[in-house]
Design a protein that fits this description.
This protein has about 260 residues and is α+β, with helices and mostly antiparallel strands. It contains five helices and seven strands; from the N terminus they run ααβββββαββαα.
Length: about 260
């Protein structure tokens, strides 16, 4: 009996161990499959854009060059598309003579690039263009906008900035985000979260509006009007009687020299 009990216990333990190992292998396979899917989508998105675009959008331009700090023309406003090793000044550009370089400009403290330069290397279809100093430019990254103006019909698909009807994005960075495969899912999730927050906000504003009205009534009742009340007889404003004039304390003092 003891031998049979030991055999049954060992069989149960072995079955439990096999079940645990099979579940562990299944979980690891699912994790690896999800990782491969994510990496595959990221690789596909990166292949659709040139390798220099994302590093370009992450750089900070118009800073002083560390190698040529003594020169008055050491502002870094150039970028080499072949090296992608950071912003360059006019002196650093001499070491990139045979490379493709572009110039970054500024508009209202935001980085822009001329359409005539960037369209040689990148498709900017759907990006809003602006005319600055008689030249068409596009912004590198999105510009925050609190809320679109009244009557705005078309907005950026990423940051919701107001646009002209024929455009979809306000900057190159928004086009990268808006054309990725994962963007539709992220936008749906953000839209759902935004609708939930709007509902809660509307309810709070309604209650605050009622409180505000009550407070206004209290304030109006607590303060006396600055103007005198209308008379009940003729409806005219009752004028106050002019007070008795008083001489100044030293008004009659005469100083002789």
């Amino acid at each position: 009996a003891h031998v049979f009990l030991l055999c049954s216990v060992s069989t149960t333990l072995s079955l439990s161990l096999l079940l645990f190992l099979s579940l562990k292998l299944a979980i690891e396979d699912n994790q690896q499959a999800s990782v491969r899917e994510i990496m595959g989508s990221e690789e596909e998105n990166s292949k659709s854009w040139p390798p220099w675009l994302k590093p370009l959008l992450q750089e900070k331009f118009f800073v002083q060059c560390k190698l040529h700090a003594d020169s008055h023309k050491s502002e870094c406003n150039m970028y080499c598309l072949d090296c992608t090793n950071g912003p360059l000044c006019s002196f650093c550009l001499s070491f990139h003579k045979d490379h493709h370089a572009i110039q970054i400009r500024r508009s209202s403290y935001h980085d822009v690039i001329r359409v005539s330069e960037i369209q040689k290397f990148l498709d900017i279809t759907g990006v809003q263009t602006y005319v600055i100093n008689s030249a068409k430019v596009v912004f590198l990254n999105e510009r925050p906008q609190p809320r679109p103006g009244k009557g705005v019909v078309n907005t950026c698909q990423v940051c919701y900035r107001s646009l002209v009807d024929s455009f979809r994005f306000c900057s190159l960075g928004c086009k990268i985000s808006g054309t990725s495969k994962n963007f539709d899912k992220k936008r749906k999730d953000s839209t759902n979260n935004l609708s939930d927050s709007d509902d809660s906000y509307s309810s709070t504003t309604t209650s605050n509006g009622r409180l505000k009205k009550n407070s206004d009534m209290i304030n109006n009742n607590s303060f006396t009007p600055s103007t005198p009340p209308l008379s009940a007889v003729n409806g005219r404003i009752v004028k106050r009687r002019k007070g008795i004039p008083h001489r100044a304390p030293f008004g009659g003092l005469i100083i002789e020299y």
